[in-house]
């Protein structure tokens, strides 16, 4: 076989592979709702509730802290805004998730989230509390940015945008739960505000355990964008029974 014929054959094989990829991707985005979609949705929804709770709980805790320690308006504002400052990290998280994948970040971030939240039980230092809140805000940025991306890439066309528009509802649910919990938690004296802040670990741990017991699959779209087409097709075949 001469060089020209070999090049023609290679080009033909490349084109065939490309067409197969496109066909497979179209199939998986046109599929009806399946268990994999439900698993992704629950994993993302739980994360949104945990994030909403973490943002809301700081307000409830700060309304209690002045009863027990001398705190200035400056520190009250900084601690309250700490999570929002951390959220600015979402500008970098998108790039990071494009490099290492959505699945890896979502599988570990809620454990880090819970660990940071539990640190509130160990310190009443205002500077450390502020730093912890920034770290929690960064984990919220991870969950929101990466969860949105994974939801969009896995869910069928039409369902992705619809379900994405519902995420704010789950943030609101988290907010409401945080204020209910913050109101009910009493009896810890000077540690009450720390305990209130630490309760943010509960929804985070629930989310982390769900994602561990019902692991998320990597996004086929992300894998294909990294040239891992065979792996993407294998995941689609396994999760959605596509040949």
From TrEMBL:
SUPFAM superfamilies: MFS general substrate transporter (SSF103473). Residues 40-243 form the Major facilitator superfamily (MFS) profile domain. Gene3D superfamilies: MFS general substrate transporter like domains (1.20.1250.20). It holds the Pfam family MFS_1. It is found in: Cell membrane. It is a multi-pass membrane protein. GO terms for molecular function: transmembrane transporter activity. Keywords: Membrane, Transmembrane, Transmembrane helix, Transport. It comes from the Bacteria. GO terms for cellular component: plasma membrane. The chain crosses the membrane at residues 36-62, 74-93, 105-124, 130-155, 167-185, 191-210. PROSITE patterns: MFS (PS50850). PANTHER family: SYNAPTIC VESICLE GLYCOPROTEIN 2. This is Inner membrane metabolite transport protein YgcS. It comes from Lactobacillus helveticus. The gene is ygcS_1.
